[in-house]
Specification:
Layout lengths: L14 H20 L4 H4 L10 H21 L18 H4 L6 H26 L16 H27 L5
Helix pairs in contact: 1-6, 3-5, 3-6
Length: 175
């Protein structure tokens, strides 16, 4: 299996291109950490955290859908998120990955990224980085700029977790 290529991040770019390049880089970094692992390996945690690589990929698929679909545009959550009983398990975005294969989780993530990128493109066309989200969070509408930077932060933080978990699973480093 050829690993997901890491996109180039330009040293000089406009604001949209720069932020989207970093987001693309960290999306690819996370995908590389789960490629080639079995469902059992994807379910392994690094003590003392219950966090797993499979759960992380599922969580980030949810994050993409939530911020770039629901919050930004007011869209209904995509499946599987729409059907989840969040009151029964508020961490279902993490837990639903248990026992799923890398192919299943990568497909879920890929579909979420595709839909998120479409939502980002719509918002950029409508008003650029200053486009305000339809759904407020904590009584305030976030700008597309804030949402994109939040996605970069979310991926960067979890990419660090993924490095540690992957190394504990099979010794792979530098992916």
């Amino acid at each position: 299996m050829t690993p997901t290529p890491l996109p180039e991040i330009p040293f000089v770019a406009d604001e949209v291109s720069a932020v989207r390049s970093f987001l693309a880089y960290f999306r690819a970094t996370l995908r590389r950490q789960v490629e080639g692992l079995t469902a059992e390996q994807l379910d392994q945690a690094l003590a003392p955290s219950p966090m797993t690589l499979g759960g992380m990929l599922s969580h980030l698929a949810f994050v993409e859908d939530y911020w770039c679909g629901h919050v930004l545009h007011g869209d209904q959550p995509a499946e599987p998120w729409r059907s989840i009983d969040w009151a029964a398990d508020p961490d279902q975005d993490w837990h639903r990955a248990a026992g799923r294969t890398a192919d299943e989780l990568l497909a879920l993530h890929e579909a979420a990224v595709r839909a998120a990128d479409e939502g980002i493109d719509r918002a950029l066309a409508a008003g650029g980085l200053d486009t305000l989200a339809v759904v407020e969070r904590h009584g305030e509408a976030a700008s597309l700029r804030w949402i994109l930077l939040h996605l970069v932060e979310e991926y960067a933080r979890h990419a660090g977790h993924a490095d540690l978990i992957r190394e504990s699973v099979d010794g792979a480093t530098g992916l």
